[in-house]
Amino acid sequence: MNEVNKTLFIPLCGKARVSRQGILLHDPSAERIWAAEGFPLRGSSASKWLAYNMAMRARVFDDWTDAMLAGDPDALVLHIGCGLDSRCERVKQPYRLWLDCDLPEVADVRRRCFAESERYRILALDASDPAQIGALPDSEAAIVVLEGLSMYLTNAQLHGLFRALRDKYSRLHILMDIYTVFGAKASRYKNPIRDVGVTEVCGVDDIPGLLRGLDVRFKAEHSFTPPALVNELKPSERRVFRLLFTGRTYRRIYRLLEFES
Predict the structure, then answer these.
(1) CB-neighbour burial class of residue 203 (10 A; exposed 0-12, middle 13-18, buried 19+)
(2) What is the reported pLDDT for 43?
(3) Which CATH code fits 3-260?
(4) Which of 5, 78, 204, 231 has its CA 20 to 30 A from that of 102?
């Protein structure tokens, strides 16, 4: 795998680790896949604090996806940049069709780990090519999960992705994590993805510009670290975790945004 594709192992390791501990996520597939496909991580990417953070982010995306499915049960679920995530198994709500999409090399690995079915498919897709969105299955509505993806796309590419999604689907529910421009610059000096060879990422500050000319609206900002999830950690760990991953400083670097049309 290239360096960008290898970043998928960082959240996979975190989810496997917390699942073994019995907190935040129940994810036997992450445990199984990490045992089969994982490799030794080094530096901050192997930190237990990052594992907790990755698992909390995944749990927030899971809970949001469940809420969207409860409100729009006929919507197509589109997870772009899925890596080896098993959200399709972790969500509680039933779904009509779930598409897990990633670059061809990742999709090939994923097919070794997950079985496709009538309701679940794995597709090769390059999010930087809007034309590929047009070839996806039709649906009136789509629930779009963009976790750990935006930082590998320029603002222009993100705008093109949003435009293609809006042209394809009448109703959109989108949740996306972003680095700010400051966060992207800071990541050159300290970021777990550097441990697998990625040195450049992109940030987004101009949300109105990202949505300019599109019938897509910013809806809400979410927390990566809701208190209820932080409280699943041991009391002795909560203080350190809060210092690392909560508060205004963290929000200056990394944000979680919801959009709709």
Answers:
(1) buried
(2) 65
(3) 3.40.50.150
(4) 204
